Amino acid sequence: MALYTPQNNNKLIFAPANDKTYSQADQYTKGSLSLSQLDPSSPLTQFHTWFKHAQTSGVRQPETTCFSTASLPSGRVSSRIVYMKELDPTGFIIYSNWGTSKKSKDVETNKWASLTFWWPEVERQVRVEGIVERLSGQESQIYYDTRIMGSRIGAWASQQSQVLAGREELDARVKDVVARFEGEEKIPVPEFWGGLRIKPEMVEFWQGRESRLHDRFQYSKKEDGEGWKLERLSP
Question: Any idea where the Pyridoxamine 5'-phosphate oxidase N-terminal domain is (predicted)?
Fold first, then answer.
């Protein structure tokens, strides 16, 4: 990646671009998007179609998403990369610690959250905004049982986002949890850990185009809550 050096050299980075065109950013040329290519009935159905395409088009870990929350009353926003683990007829599901993590504190005060998927191999992006709800312990147990033993132990041992005196403290907690469940084949999902469903109120599908004149279409929930409005947005 080449770095263009401006006359004002106070900037540490300025307009980073590719190594062929120097100060000019890459152009998106792999596709276009029209209204006729979108499912008018549901953005979840459309997301499923795009996700399958990403899986078969060389996108690495297309389930990777940026999950953003905001705390009230401060309004401070926090973002982190997580995995979307499930998609059902009502929303997108992720799993995490909901007892001590920063995201859990945000969700306690503000039920709105967003997801952003970025698939550079196909030059596509999907943005989701919606209301969150916790999954039941029984629902969370189903996914929890699919995790490797180390990850199940880790969910119990980690007080996510809390200050650690050192790695030794975490290692000691892991050792305690291993001893606690020694010989047990089925470990119960912790009460503070589990699934969160983001129920979309808005979903945007973005296809990169040349000169930053991207194709953008937005699904938004109708006021009566029945069905979706689908509109093209200016890039």
Answer: 55-177
In this structure, CATH architecture of domain 35-141+193-233: Roll (2.30)
Q: Please name which of 100, 90, 101, 72 lies closest in space to residue 128, comparing C-alpha atoms.
A: 90
Entry pTM: 0.91
Per-residue model confidence as pLDDT tens digits over 158-183:
999 999 999 999 999 999 999 999 98
212 is catalytic: yes
Amino acid at site 27:
Q
Grouping H, G, I as helix, E, B as strand and the rest as coil, residue 80 is strand
**Which of 114, 111, 120, 123 has its CA nearest to residue 82?**
114
Residue closest to 231 by CA, chosen among 48, 85, 40: 40
Q: Which has the higher per-residue pLDDT, 9 or 19?
A: 9
Alpha carbons 24 and 2: distance in angstroms, whole number? 10
Q: Which of the following is catalytic: 76, 180, 212, 232?
A: 212
